[in-house]
Amino acid sequence: MKVHHVTISAFSSVEEADALKGVISGMLPEGVEVEDRRIEPEEEGGVFNHELVELKAVVKKQKRIREFVSKVLGSLDDYDARKLREGPDDFIDDRCNLYMRLSKTEAEDGNFVFESGDCIHVRLKLAAYPAKKEKALPIARELIEDALR
């Protein structure tokens, strides 16, 4: 698989962090841990006026990357699968990262649905050389097709 690594991250209130950590852990292959980091509130005038928790996991081994990609992409609903298939260039940046934002509430039930608000961020670092979007697109298409079969 032509993916260097996968990074999964999300932000949560302190009260909801354990539940979200469980949701993210359920998405991950065995042996991949979710780390958490507390973010203190900003001083007056800041955007965040309460403590947040950043949850993050990195999948590095190829076998585990395949498991994760198969699980998540293979579980997308028909609408999101079609959206990903028809326009992978909308999900890839100029640094060969394929981004997906998944609904936290749907993920609680094991459903993976694209979301633009409060979500779980998934970033796949595609192994394209040279590292250009044009080189990453065929890799993304192959990855998507394999996972959605």
- N→C terminal distance: 15 Å
CATH class label: Alpha Beta
Q: Helix-strand pattern, N to C? A: EHEEHHEHEH
Radius of gyration: 16 Å
Assign an overall shape: globular
User: How does the major sheet shape up?
Assistant: 5 strands, antiparallel
Number of domains: 1
Lateral strand order in the biggest sheet: 2-3-1-5-4
Summarize the structure in short:
The protein has helices at 17-27, 62-74, 78-86, 104-108, 133-148; strands spanning 3-13, 35-39, 52-59, 97-103, 119-126. It is an alpha+beta fold and 149 residues long. Helix 2 packs across helix 5 (133-148).
Question: Overview of this structure, please?
Answer:
The protein is an alpha+beta fold. The protein has a single domain, classed as 2-Layer Sandwich (50s Ribosomal Protein L5, Chain: A), CATH 3.30.1440. It has helices at 17-27, 62-74, 78-86, 104-108, 133-148, and strands spanning 3-13, 35-39, 52-59, 97-103, 119-126. Strands 2-3-1-5-4 form a five-stranded antiparallel beta sheet. α2 (62-74) packs across α5. The two termini are 15 Å apart.
